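Input record (Table S2, row 134):
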Amino acid sequence: MSTTVTTSSTSTSPWVPICHIDDIPVLGSRRVERPRGPAVALFRTGTGAVFALLDRCPHKGGPLSQGIVFGERVACPLHNWSISLCDGVAAAPDEGCTPRFAVQVLGGQVHLDRSQLAQLGTDLPLPVAGPVRA
Ligand code: FES
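Output record (FE2/S2 (inorganic) cluster complex):
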C-alpha cells in the first residue's frame, strides 16, 4: 500500500497526518511517497507499535517496505540484512544505518514530522547496486 503526502500545506502543525493505523497491516508496512527524495516506509509491529524509516536499506538500497517485519526489526527483501525499526541500524556483523523518522499516533491517526518529511534523507546519493568496479 502507498500514500502520497505533501508537506507544503498552510497548516502550522509540526505533524502531517498520513493514514489511520489500520491502514498499515500488522507485521507489515505502508509506503509514503514524498514530493522530493526517497519514500518513507511506515511499519506496524505485532504489538501495534508504529515506526518509520527511509524506504532504503543501508546496504544497497533495497525497499525496506517490502521486507519482513519481525519483533522490532525488518529483514531487507534483497539480501536479508536485519534493520532495527527503532533506530534504523543494521544488526552486526553488518554495518550501516538508514534514517529514522519521528512518528506520532493520536486517536488512531498516524502522523509524521513535517520538517523531516521535507528534508530527511532527500540528499542521499543513489544506492550502489551490483558489482563494485575499481
Ligand atoms: S540491499 Fe538490503 S540487504 Fe542488501
